[in-house]
Every structure is written in structure tokens, then in C-alpha cells.
Hints:
Layout: H1 5-11, E1 28-35, H2 42-48, E2 56-62, E3 73-78, H3 86-100, E4 105-109, H4 114-117, E5 121-123, H5 126-130, H6 151-164, E6 168-173, H7 175-190, E7 196-201, H8 219-240, E8 244-249, H9 256-265, E9 269-270, H10 273-278, H11 283-299, E10 305-310, H12 318-330, H13 334-341, H14 345-355, H15 358-366, H16 369-377, H17 392-409, E11 419-424, H18 426-429, H19 435-453, E12 459-464, E13 474-479, E14 484-489, E15 492-497, H20 507-521, H21 537-540, H22 545-550
Parallel strand pairs: 3-4, 3-6, 6-7, 7-12, 8-10, 8-11, 9-10
Antiparallel strand pairs: 1-2, 2-13, 4-5, 12-13, 14-15
Helix pairs in contact: 3-19, 8-9, 9-20, 11-17, 12-15
Amino acid sequence: MKYSPLQKARYEYTPKLPEMLKNGISEIGVNEGAETQSVADQDAIKALFPNTYGKKEITFKKGQNTSTAKLHKVGVILSGGQAPGGHNVVCGLYDALKATSKDNELFGFKNGPSGLVDDDYLIFDDNYINEFRNTGGFDIIGSGRTKLESEEQFAVAAEVCKKHGITAIVIIGGDDSNTNAAVLAEYFAAKETGIQVIGCPKTIDGDLKNEDIEISFGFDTATKTYSELIGNIERDANSAKKYWHFIKVMGRSASHVALECALETQPNICLISEEVAEKKMSLSQIADYIADSVEKRAAKGMNFGIAVIPEGVVEFVPEFSMLIHEINELLAGSKAAAFNELPTWEDKYTFIKTGLSAEAFAVIDILPVGIQQQLFLERDPHGNVQVSLIESEKLFSSLVAAKLAEKKANGTYKGKFNALHHFFGYEGRCAFPSNFDSDYCYSLGYNAFMLIQYGYTGYLSKVSNLSKPSTEWVAGGMPITKMMNVERRHGEDKPVIKKALVELVGNPFKYFEAHRDEWAVETCYLYPGAIQYYGPAEVCDIVTRTLALEQE
């Protein structure tokens, strides 16, 4: 097989570990801290997790390994969307297993959680795993979005583990996947199966974090990849001086990606969904805000600019949220079939007009036809609007164009406005992980085995103090239930890991807020360039601006 020079070089990269994990397995001890409680709804979460709730936070230290020696057969699952560094979690887990005993085995369940219930797996060996060290993607075993949440699935999973002698499962995933890990751990504990479950925090969206999880893996690489692309477009815009680029970036429920990219590249406009919600901004107000920047820059002879848009921002606009709710009600059940059978868009438009409130239809009426159709032609398995498929970058550029046409008619605007559109999503999910993500993920996997060796279950692998050099990182674990609360999902109260939204009082947003007025009018672009793997530490091992500002 042929490899690119970068592939060859990355295979040979040795990830850095926290100091307490570098001493050899036999010299890793453990400190137990205080008992924990859930972030909210303590009584409800405790009742749902009687066997795994309230466990102690733990930290690994240099010292004698006091765990009980035994053969370990561990299963690993990649769950949900890809994130750079996932392969290194598996590699770190494998290396820790083999460093303890060459007889230990790591089973990789294929294509996500379904691989566990389908008993579809491979057993890793050195030759196989060495092909994936420090590389992007989840192709080492594949991923999937099947949820493990029913008693039947849990029972099958227990039987599969029993069949192979597996006594621990590591689930690498985001908030939903680690919620599933907590539920599975509780089931295994209640049934006294002896099977441990450990989670690892993954998501490029950055919304799986809290006082313990400083950053989810993949966020560093993905935002650096998007920032490189945005910087390239900024340079092009400043060269051609004739286009406004509207760039949508990933972030359905939170704007961490958009904010980090703004801190890295200093675009003229960056919308933050959480601020839109707090200020109850309408579509018209958002369009006015962007149009104001366009107008002021045009007055300086700069008919170009950059606007960064989080993919889920429209859901945070109150009037749009109302519209989405009414559409979901309008097309519930059999009414969806009747709507889909209408032969033309004009017929469907009439159906919509008679079915929505005047307020909701007024929102529909200001949308471009293409966006109107996206709202009604794409449904998720539950029959709801798939908001992530709405081309919000085109929506806002269209609304801005209409605002500027009014200004031009009034003689207050004499500039030119030509919009181009981009969506950066898949470009960042499987990039070669940065040194930070390579190191962090390897540490998470290595650390996950230490949690297994010491007998913990229902824990999340935790590495903290991440804004410092890796030698100062702190490894340990926290009970997943500490992160949980109760939320309403599909008409039922469900225990879930609480999503972390952008904090409008936090240092990253405050820095952005203090500078954005200047960025909106002047050309203050930064060009971060491609991820660097070799060279000075301040270039190659730099953390995200978000993490650095949060840890100040």
C-alpha cells in the first residue's frame, strides 16, 4: 500500500502523556476524592442510577499500582459522528492493555453500538493498529448512531460480552453516546454482570464540556481546519475585493465552533446562537446587523467581507422556533402524507397558508422560496423539520440583499453586494489530528484502561489542566452521572448529559464581544494557515483560543 509522506510521518509520531501516566503501569496509583452528585435533578438521577450514582471523582498519581492483577478482555465502540483523534483513543487503550500483559485483548465492535448487539467485531493486533496511529477518521472499526437504550439490547450486549469473556466496554462518543454508556453501566451493575463501562468525551461541536471536561476531543483539530479555510477565504476576499462570503460552520445546538473560528480569524461578522436567543433577535434584526457592516465597509470602498454562521442559529430565533413548532404540528401523522401528495409547490404553499397562524406564515413569507421548500421537503424519522439542512448562510445573505436593496432605493447605500456561500462540516471531521488531539486522545485511551484496571464503571475518562504542557496534564475519571440532568425528549423525561452552550459571561465570548465592532468595519483578518505538526511548541502544540481564554 502507498502512503503519503505525511501519513508515514504521523505513524511514527509518539504521543505525549501526562506525567503520572508515563511511569509505567506498575507505578500508577490512584487518589479518590469526594462523592459526587448530578448537575441537576439529583433525586431523579439518583433514583434512575442507584448502583452508579454518587461515586467519587478519582485522580491518578505516581505510586504503587494497587489494582488486582487479572486478564483483561476489553471491547471498544466508536459512536456517532467522526472526530479527529478517535483512532488514538483506541491506540492508547490498546497500548495500555498490552503494556500490562501481552495476553490482554482488545475487541473492536464494528460500525458503532450495533456491532456489540450484532456480535460483529475484530480483535486488534500490532500490525492492524499501527496503520491507524495519529490518523483521522473512524475507519479503524467504523462508527454508527444506534442507541443502546432498551432492556433487550442490554441483555444481548451482556450475552455477547459473556461469550467472549469481555469484562469492560469503552464507548467513545458525545453526550448522547455517553448517556447511553451510563445507562448501560447501570444495567450491568444492577444485574451483577461484572462488566464495566467507561466513556470518552468526543464531539467537534464542543458542547460536551463542563468544570471537569475542559474540551471534547476533535474540537481542536476541526476548528483549526475550518479556521485555515476561513483564513484562506479572507485572503481571497481581501485580494479580489468584490465578494461577501457567508460561511456556515458546524454547531447545531451550540456555537462553540463558530466562536473559536472567529477568535482564530477575526471575520467581519460572526453570529452566536446563544446571544441571538438571549436578545430574542428576529431574522430582520440579524439581517440589519449584517447589512450595517456591509454598508459601513462599502462607505470605505470595501465591498467585501466575511460572515460566519453557526448551522443551528435559526432554531435560536424566537419567530423561527415558533414556525418550526407549527410546521411540525401541521404535518403530524396522516397530514404529512396528504401534503406530500399535492402535485405542485403552489398547491403546497396554499396548504401551508391555511394551516399556519398569521404570525408563522409572516415568517414563511419573508423567506426565499428555496428555504421555504427546505422546511417542508426534508423530515427526520420523527416527522420533524431537519433544521441542520436549512441553508442558513443563503437565508441570511438573501435577507441582507433585500435590506440593501431598500437602502439603495432610499439613496443611503451606494455599494455593491455580491454573496458567495460555503458550508464547512465534513472537511474537519476526519482531518489528521493536531498534536494536541493526538496527545489528548492517546491519553484518554490510556487513562480509560487505568479506570478499568482499578475496577471503576460508569466513569468518563478525564484528562485536565489541558492549557498547560502535557507534562502537567492531570489524568483521572469522573462518574458520568455527575454531568446529567433530566430533559424532555420526544414527550418523555429522560436522563441526559447536559449540553454546554456558549457562556455569554465567559472569557471567550467577552473577548469576541470587545473586538467585534472593530472587526465588523475594518479588515482585521488573521490567517492561521494549516495545522503544523513539527516545529516550535508554540506553533505545533498551541491550544484553541477558547481553551486558553477559559483557563486564564
